[in-house]
Write a structure and sequence with these properties.
Strand 4 and strand 5 (63-67) form a beta hairpin. The chain is mainly β. The protein has one helix at 16-23, and strands at residues 30-31, 43-45, 50-53, 56-60, 63-67, 71-74, 85-94, 99-105, 116-117, 122-132, 144-146, 156-157, 171-174, 177-181, 186-191, 198-200, 204-206, 209-210, 218-226, 229-237, 249-252, 264-270, 277-283, 292-293, 295-300, 303-304, 321-329. An eight-stranded antiparallel beta sheet has the order 16-19-20-27-22-23-25-26, with no helix packed on it. It comes from Streptomyces aurantiogriseus.
Length: 331
């Protein structure tokens, strides 16, 4: 046994098998289309003894096949059958016949198995599944199930500032980020690296007034955005007793939320003055604002509190600790 390598000047591609072995790795077997809602090589039936294959092209085992117009393929009769039969319309790559042609392949109660034997020179890919009723020799229009594979596109690389037009089904890699084309936009899929946390300074307000927690207060926000999702937490420790407020306290989010439904985050308040601690909720109200947490409420012995202010339901004072954290969809 020995290793063989090609193509080189001294050992060019010499056989169809060598070419197929090489070219079959250039792209996926399947119909050439960006969208399988297209009619490329789609199989249809109209209740007669044949099915029709629409125009289109495909890639099978490193070779290309084209159909330039409607192609009629005969249905194998099930006249002697006692139950419905599930068949396949396939494209068959046959090296010995030097061709790729459509074949009507009969099955049984389940569809037949596809042949995938590059070594013997026969490879099949599906176009459609057809059901032939017991005793029938026709395929009804509603008895065809689309089984086409799409050949797809190679992964593209680029930068955010110089993107190619979106191609449906194509993956685009920009640095560690992966995007999927829908034909109009590039949709963020994920990242190969975990984004680092960024920081921001939350702004606390009550009505039209800014709440002053003291010049030495701890007022820190952290966040990271992955796709259309924002993870965040806020930590507040006043260095002075704030003025009494009557309007609900609100606090800015790191990035605007999408603004479709209310988001619910966790809140926790710990007293530095022997008052205990309380768990609560922080709510967004998109119809009111998409840039802030609009209400903070705590669970007390008598039930959920009214909206949190600097003095209701608890007196927020120096060295008390308020934390809020959550995840939400961004615009």
């Amino acid at each position: 046994m020995a290793f063989t390598s090609y193509p080189f000047s001294s050992s060019p591609l010499a056989t169809e098998a060598q070419y197929a072995l090489t070219a079959s790795r250039w792209g996926n077997d399947g119909v050439h289309t960006d969208d399988l809602t297209s009619t490329a090589l789609k199989v249809t039936a109209n209740g007669t003894s044949s099915v029709s294959i629409a125009a289109g092209s495909a890639f099978v085992n490193g070779a290309t096949v084209e159909n330039d117009g409607p192609y009629s393929l005969s249905v194998v009769s099930n006249s002697g059958g006692s139950s419905a039969r599930k068949d396949l319309v396939v494209l068959r790559y046959d090296a010995s016949a030097d061709s790729i042609l459509p074949v009507y392949k009969t099955g049984g109660t389940t569809p037949p198995t596809l042949t995938n034997s590059p070594g013997t020179g026969v490879v099949e890919i599906p176009l459609a599944e057809c059901t032939v009723a017991a005793g029938a020799s026709v395929v009804a229009s509603n008895a065809v199930v689309d089984r086409r594979w799409g050949s797809g596109h190679p992964v593209a690389y680029g930068t955010a500032g110089a993107r190619r037009p979106s191609v449906k089904g194509m993956l685009l890699v920009e640095g560690p980020d992966i995007h999927l084309g829908d034909g109009t936009n590039w949709l963020y899929v994920g990242t190969a690296s975990d984004p680092v946390w960024s920081t921001y300074t939350p702004v606390w307000t009550a009505g039209a007034s800014t709440v002053n927690w003291g010049s030495g207060s701890t007022n820190r926000g952290r966040y990271k955005v992955i796709g259309k999702t924002c993870f965040f937490d806020i930590n507040l420790i006043p260095s002075g007793d704030p003025a009494t407020t009557t309007s609900p306290i609100q606090v800015t989010l790191p990035v605007p939320l999408k603004g479709v439904v209310r988001e619910n985050f966790t809140a926790h308040l710990t007293s530095a003055h022997g008052g205990g601690s309380w768990n609560g909720t922080a709510l967004t109200i998109p119809t009111e604002t998409t840039t802030k947490i609009a209400r903070i409420r705590f669970n007390t012995s008598s039930g959920w509190s009214q909206d949190f202010t600097t003095n209701v339901p608890f007196n927020m004072r120096i060295n008390d600790v308020l934390t809020i954290s959550g995840v939400y969809e961004i615009a």
